[in-house]
Predict the 3D structure of the following.
Amino acid sequence: MSDKQTYLTGITTTGTPHLGNYVGAIRPAIEASEVIGNESYFFLADYHALIKCTDPALVRQSRREIAATWLALGLDPDVVTFYRQSDIPEIMELTWILTCLAAKGLLNRAHAYKASVQANEDNGSADSDKGITMGLFNYPVLMSADILMFKATKVPVGKDQVQHIEMARDIAQRFNHHYGELLVLPDVVVSEQAVLSGLDGRKMSKSYGNTIALFDAEKKLRKGIMKIKTNSQEPGEPKDTEGNTVFEIYKAFATSDQVSEFSQAYADGIAWGDAKQQLYELINAQMTEPRERYNELMAEPEKVETVLKCGAAKAREHSVPYLKQLREAVGISS
Ligand code: TRP
């Protein structure tokens, strides 16, 4: 048996990438894709985006921004198969086949669905399913199709997604039980996702509105960093690095030597304004080149389009014949 692994991960295309996405997901995924010998599939989960977002312009915009971000940060489409979920119609067909196998009871237990039901109950709503779409309910099945379509063996995700990989395994097992061992059971790889703090000290997240966008222009980036909440300690007072947001963000971007120096500066009572200025300079230096590439890519959408179309063609070399096999197995074929 070869130990070559197939890594696959999807990025839901809602929102503009921020520093927290970079440190927690984008940087580790690109680094992992550079390891020779494995195969990687990265895709833009734009059909997943429809679950959360009914504004077509936003879906389009976010998809463009996210594609340009990953490419600007060095994702190599010759190494990784990089595509849009919506360019692979086989995923949708497989979703239906899997929907017919997935137990409703299994999906009743999905965290995202349960949380929505709970919210309705807490609000005293007469209908505990109020406002919940079938898209949200069926989300783990679509995600299973994403994974199973490409025979992924390793799926790196954050902790909140572990349950979905378990569901994919469960559904795949049912398929294999009825139709033969055609689907590969994926393993979850829980990324010990570095969690970056946001402006207010809570986890940097779009839902808290405390983010700093990754590719803000210099001035805006600096302004964002200057807004990070600090305490009222005066310049000259020794400062604690522990639990300090400026320090934590700095650490996520710095070498260990830089961290020691910065930590010494805290002990020496650096002023908050100066600490933030140093943080700005550190991030800005690292982002200058990717930001230029990003702006170029955003100005030339055809370029990104070409990359994604090539990625889809590469992906479909696999998904088209495989889906044919799966259709035949379930009795749908001409
Ligand atoms: N649901 C994932 C998220 O929100 C994104 C995603 C969609 C995904 N399909 C996937 C991740 C398949 C891994 C594998 O983060």
About this structure: The first helix runs from residue 19 to 33. The pocket of tryptophan is lined by residues 8-10, 12, 45, 48, 143, 146-147, 155, 157, 161 (CB under 6 Å). The longest strand covers residues 6-12. The domain at 215-295 is CATH 1.10.240.10 (Tyrosyl-Transfer RNA Synthetase).
